[in-house]
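TICKET: design request
STATUS: open
ATTACHED STRUCTURE:
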């Protein structure tokens, strides 16, 4: 069992940057691949980024490739999502999730989400 807590969301302007954190308790992140998903109002939840158990491999949704970076600090049991050049369409609740599958992402555990709002 692992518990996930996201933080770092907020209100920013288009073009700004924001860094989300996902802290784990219980089993360590080194046992899991970790993903970020997001859900905008009225839309389905969508995949954003994933990182492998070791942190050595990553992949991204096309919509964020080149702007977002996922990273992992297994010693701190924390995963990050650095978001640069934010756009209004990035506005959503962002969820951290963990599971044994890296690709495809099939998480077993979810955080409660953190709101990111990008104004134009």
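STATUS: resolved
RESOLUTION: sequence designed for all positions
ATTACHED SEQUENCE:
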């Amino acid at each position: 069992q692992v518990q996930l807590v996201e933080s770092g969301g907020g209100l920013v302007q288009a073009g700004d940057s924001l860094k989300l954190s996902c802290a784990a308790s219980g089993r360590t992140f080194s046992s899991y691949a970790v993903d970020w998903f997001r859900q905008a109002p009225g839309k389905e939840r969508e995949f954003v980024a994933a990182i492998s158990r070791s942190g050595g491999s990553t992949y991204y949704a096309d919509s964020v490739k080149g702007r977002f970076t996922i990273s992992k600090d297994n010693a701190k049991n924390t995963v990050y999502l650095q978001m640069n050049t934010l756009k209004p369409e990035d506005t959503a609740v962002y969820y951290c999730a963990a599971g044994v599958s890296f690709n495809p992402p099939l998480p077993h555990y979810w955080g409660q989400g953190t709101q990111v709002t990008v104004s134009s």
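CLOSING REMARK: The chain has a mean pLDDT of 95. Residues 5 and 23 are 5 Å apart (CA to CA).
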